[in-house]
Amino acid sequence: MKKGQAEMLTALSFQDGSLLGDLARKHVAAFKEVLPGHHKPLCGRRTWGSLCSGSEGAHFVTQAVEMAMGTWNTASGQLPLQLEQLFACEVCPRKRKWIHHVVNVPRRAKGEIEICIFIDILHMHQRTAFCETHDKECEVPGADIILVSTSCRDLSLLSSAARNFTEPVLGMETSPGGSADTFGGFLGYLDNHLASFVVYENSDQMVDDHAAPLEKTNEDVFNAKMSSRFYEGCNFIINAKLYGCPQSRRRFFAVYIRTVMGIIDFRIRTVFDQIRTMTMLLQGCKRACPPARDLLLPDEDFDLQVELLAMLEKPERIAEKPTWQLEHQKEYAKVYARWGSDSPCEATRNSPWISILNGYQRSLLTLNQHKVLGKSARLYTASCQHSTASGQQPTDSVQEGRRIPVLMIDVRPSIGRLSTSTHDEYCQQEIAPCIVPDQRLWLHIETPRPLLGREAMLFQGWPISSVDFKPWMTDSFLYSLAGNAVACPVLLAILISTVSAVSITDTDVVAEIPWSNEDEEEQAAALRLLGNIAA
Fold first, then answer.
1. 116-118 and 82-89 strand pairing
2. More confident call, 529 vs 442
3. Closest Cα partner for 502 from 338, 316, 270?
């Protein structure tokens, strides 16, 4: 595990699309070293589906898992693992178009059956639901594996409404941002369709939430809802930076196994033992991330230049409050700067791409640059005083041509929030802030510019080089996909650890499996004590 965690991923593997395949092969090789020789991982034809699909990075994750597990299955005398996607579900029409392009267009070219793309998770409890692929009502199937990411709008700290709830959002029937609604749709699917195990993702506020002073949190509601449906498992708070993505992205993940009427065998190994094995394997999937700067496209990249020129011709328009100028003037006064003055960074002032930002964004960029320089000046002064007191000479100047000491600054947050890249002590690298949809990161590089949407996808470990780009795939759309995506290396680690750790039944004809012993319920409850071990 320590050997794997010390390995730094290369930026090239992110850019050329080889990241997930390479990681999957290395994970399987490590698993074979620590699991007993007689253990047989998941094999044969297994089905999966996704709910609230987002960017559908799971399509590439399952491909990588399937290929990496093939040699292991063959060596253990089993059929190769075949993960067949049956359906996706997405409420946003443009994202459904993306899923069709990513998943169904290659299938059609190969003469394979196209997957169903359902339009609303609220319909997934029914026997049939409208499918955009086939333009009709299609049967909603069960699947061996369900990957789901319900709405986090009412859980995120970025939501002002989230602070006003007097009860856990997931315990409500409906909520303004749809978090309660989509979670209810997911539960409805489990009530009416069989799924052997579930991988769930949502905001880290599932644990660190606003309902903490109340009797129950959202995590408590989630655990109770899953347990009442014969699912037992474990919850985690995982930061993508620990699994090789150079951004600080904390998310809640849960892996739950169905204890009755599923493909998992509990006759010899309890559900507790199988989940414990999965959490052990998950630790071995950690990797050191490359510096955030290395993932950026070079200035001479043709696609980069084309996108920036298009943005320059048609600057982004965002809603601005009528009083924003007055608010900015007050904030400028706090940092002893004059509102309306030029950026303190010479490279930013001379950048040919500064006109991409509108007046609000340029004002906020200059303000935040002053804040960052002021903070670095205070740190420099403190370090100088410490060095002088210890007889050492200071080695650097904070001014240094007014160079901004951070790679990224967000120019679309609220006026009182400063979001920048940071030098992470664990990674020993400068990493990006959490990639979110409502964001515009300005890059302090040789020729300063905004971060592109396709670059944001790279920070999620998404194999963007595999996509045949079309005119309707705008930069803002790609950035929105990246902000809502599940970090692919994290999903890969969870999924490949799970399929490697579980024991499967000898036959696909399954019956209700009784508790194996009187301690099983206590062991299942103890699984929750394993929470956050991957953090």
1. parallel
2. 442
3. 270
Query: What are 500's two structure tokens?
Result: 């490697």
The span from the CA of 370 to the CA of 379, in Å, is 14
485-499 exposure pattern, b = at least 16 Cβ within 10 A, e = fewer: bbbbbbbbbbbbbbb
Which helix (DSSP H) or strand (DSSP E) does residue 118 occupy?
Answer: strand 116-118
Distance CA 209, CA 204 (A): 8
- How many angstroms separate the CA atoms of 412 and 316, rounded? 12
What's the confidence (pLDDT) of residue 208?
66
- Note whether 534 and 283 are within 8 A (CB): yes
Over residues 179-206, mean pLDDT: 94
The Cα–Cα gap between 263 and 525 comes to: 21
Per-residue pLDDT, averaged over 152-169, amounts to 74
From the centroid of its chain, how far is CA 229?
Answer: 26
Token pair 């092969």 in the structure block, residue: 25
pTM for this predicted structure = 0.89
Provide the pairing of β-strand 136-139 with 422-424: unpaired
Query: Locate tokens 């049956």: which residue?
Result: 86
**3-class SS of residue 97:** helix
Which pairing describes strands 195-203 and 408-410: parallel, antiparallel, or unpaired? Answer: unpaired
Domains of the chain in start order, with CATH, are: 2-32+64-140+151-192+203-291+487-514 (3.40.50), 298-451 (no CATH)
Q: DSSP assignment of 398-438, as one string?
A: S-GGG--SSSEEESSS-TT---B-EEETTTTEEEBPPP-SS
Report how far residue 423's alpha carbon sits from residue 198's, in angstroms, rounded to the nearest whole number: 35
> Is the pLDDT assigned to residue 242 strictly greater than 90?
yes
Contact 185, 118 (CB under 8 A): no
- Alpha-carbon distance of 162 to 369, in angstroms, equals 30
Kindly give the interhelix angle for 488-501 and 19-34, rounded to the nearest 10 degrees. 30
- Cα–Cα distance measured from residue 187 to residue 134, given in angstroms and rounded to the nearest whole number: 25
With cut-offs at 50, 70 and 90, classify the pLDDT of residue 326: very high
Which strands make up the sheet holding 128-131, listed edge to edge? 136-139, 128-131, 116-118, 82-89, 45-51, 143-148, 195-203, 250-258, 231-239
Band (pLDDT 50/70/90 cuts) for residue 163 is low
| pLDDT mean across residues, the chain | 86
pLDDT tens-digit map of 243-254: 999 999 999 999
